Amino acid sequence: MSKLHVTTSVNGQPEEVLCEPHQSLLDVLRDELGLTGTKEGCSTGDCGACSVTLDGRLVCSCLVLAAEAEGKEVGTIEGVANPDGLHVLQQKFLEHAALQCGICTPGFIVAAKVLLERDPNPDETTIRYWLAGNLCRCTGYDKIIRAVQDAATELAHEA
Amino acid sequence: MGDYAYAAPTSLEEALSVLESQANDGQRTQILAGGTDVLVQMRSIDKEPRTLVDIKQIAETNELSIGADEIFIGAAIPSAALNENDELKGLLPGLIEAADLIGSTQIQGRATIGGNLCNSSPAGDTIPALVVVSAVCVIASPGGSREVAVGDFVTGVGQNCLGSNEFLVGLKIPRPGNNSADAYLRFIPRTEMDIAVAGAGVALTLDDGGTCTSARVAIGAVAPTVLLVEAASAALVGTKVDDDALNAAAAACSDAASPITDKRGTVEYRKKVVGVLCKRAGGIARDRASS
């Protein structure tokens, strides 16, 4: 099987990879580029653990072929923190204990970051619907929602 | 049996030529748009290698235009982009709501109306919504292009009239007038992310006095394919779309439905619920058309 040469950008860094035609972006991020912050949950687009951005749009990286990332900008959890420390969302997830096992957390933070960029002051219903594609089997979601609300408040103060 | 391969043609002609040359090599092909059905199915129920032909690099499949007479929605446009277009939402609220019902934010970022149609599930939410607004499929074909009404496109469960050397370019929809509106409702046992137990779409036009001059009613998940229910349309035309008319349309939908019993619902339940959905969607379409 002939491999495909894909040129893409991950968290602002140019990347070139060789991939199988049917290999997912998730597998290439984890196995070829060593970016293991993005998690594999269901691999059917149901759980959101593999959430990344593709040209700014939130997607499940398990449902994107690596070949489809040609010429695109990919954003992963590794690109969320600032050089000088955690992103506000990451800090708030810690403060609110919005995680237990942590497998779902990168997906939640990537998804919540896109929401707050589009809607800096979302109400609880908006947050819950936006994050409905991210499953967490530990927390019961309330702490996650509060962490996102608190992050929105803090980001509004910073602005 | 060949290997997996991937092609991303940049024109309709190139895409057709990829489909033809792969077929000549004995290689199976499959069109890839958003991939939210295709990739899941490729990894589970049907793993046979194939060439995935990605149609997202083609100008025509990315076209979204709202003309004086006609709206065109390219087959590669994700639901999220449709939902962000306020003019489109104002003109075709029912269709956009149907697209918005499918999957999570992440799925919305990839999934397309064209893909929902080509997947041809009996429960595809956008199909009744497309049928009631008289959408027409624009199909790239070796002979040029051909057009098929959405109501004639799906031929069975998971089956449609596309040949292996053809693909859907987009959907043409007559631009609704000021007194026209559509609505789509489905029932699921939760509020988000499930497959329809039953669905109903209604599009209608009112005259200045509020009398219905034309109506289309289509129901989903209650037969092998979406059904256009002419008797329900007839029950609305000539009325003010009041409760009596809506009840008659609902009864027509329940009569027309021929569902199966499965884990999502029984025959009796689906027949009842599809009528209720028709009544409610009809009321929403009426209120939209008169406002």
From TrEMBL, chain A:
Superkingdom of origin organism: Bacteria
Domain 2Fe-2S ferredoxin-type: 4-80
Pathway linked to the protein: Alkaloid degradation; nicotine degradation
CDD domains attached to this UniProt entry: fer2
Organism: uncultured actinobacterium HF0770_13M05
Annotated transmembrane regions: none
Keywords assigned by UniProt, alphabetized: 2Fe-2S, Iron, Iron-sulfur, Metal-binding, Oxidoreductase
GO molecular function: 2 iron, 2 sulfur cluster binding; metal ion binding; oxidoreductase activity
Matches recorded under InterPro entries: 2Fe-2S-bd, 2Fe-2S-bd_dom_sf, 2Fe-2S_ferredoxin-like_sf, 2Fe-2S_ferredoxin-type, 2Fe2S_fd_BS, Beta-grasp_dom_sf, Diverse_Oxidoreductases
Record-given protein name: Aerobic-type carbon monoxide dehydrogenase, small subunit CoxS/CutS homologs
